[in-house]
Design a protein that fits this description.
- By secondary structure, this protein is mostly helical.
- The chain has a domain at about 5-70.
- It has helices at about 5-55, 60-65.
Length: about 110
């Protein structure tokens, strides 16, 4: 291989690398555009009912559904039908211990 052929081969390899990098950037940008469009469509489908209800003044109902009666401040309060917990067993007083006779050491 002559030096001229080596330079030409290096230039071809450099051009191929630039081409592949450009192609990769374009593919990434196209994929990102598609993904962003899909995410926007999903977001509109998911958040649409909430934003429409908010626009119609129904935010109170949304909050009541989200947090339950009493709003956020009373979210952790017991609700009707909740398990009340176990009633602790009544402790029976222990019988008084009888004094044991002392042993005599002889």
């Amino acid at each position: 291989m002559t030096p001229g052929e080596a330079i030409e081969a290096a230039e071809l390899a450099d051009a191929e690398t630039r081409y592949r990098c450009q192609l990769g950037r374009e593919m990434y940008q196209a994929g990102r555009r598609d993904a962003e469009a899909e995410m926007a469509e999903r977001w509109n489908r998911i958040a649409g009912p909430v934003s429409r209800a908010r626009d119609l003044g129904g935010i109170e109902e949304i909050e009541a559904r989200r947090w339950g009666p009493g709003g956020r401040a009373h979210f952790a309060d017991p609700r009707p039908g909740d398990f009340p917990g176990r009633v602790p067993a009544q402790r029976q007083p222990e019988p008084a211990a009888e004094a044991e006779p002392e042993l005599e050491i002889t």
